[in-house]
Predict the structure.
Amino acid sequence: MHTAVRDALITGHKALIETLVLPDPDDRHVLAAAIVGRCDVIVTQNLQDFPEAVLKPYSIETQHLDDFLVNHLHLAPGKFCVAVRKVQARLKNPPYSVEDYLATLAGCDRRRTGTIR
């Protein structure tokens, strides 16, 4: 990930993990990294694992992957479509159509991205 996406690696968050309380303790590292990384949003399909009351003091919110993708589509449609097609074109084993790639991104719950063409 670090070589593919500049600034994707967050360090210095491990000491914070034990101080956080979430419904699933295995998710604490995600919140710790988001806090240290000064992230605005945690993108997840498990919204219930990151309660608003726990995230609010850190000014972090959650978004379902589907909503995140559609929000970015609306912010910059051209850039979004170019990025999706670029990543999709790199997938060779197995190859994916754009529709299949979007389905993979959003899993089975494609409330809104299912309508993107």
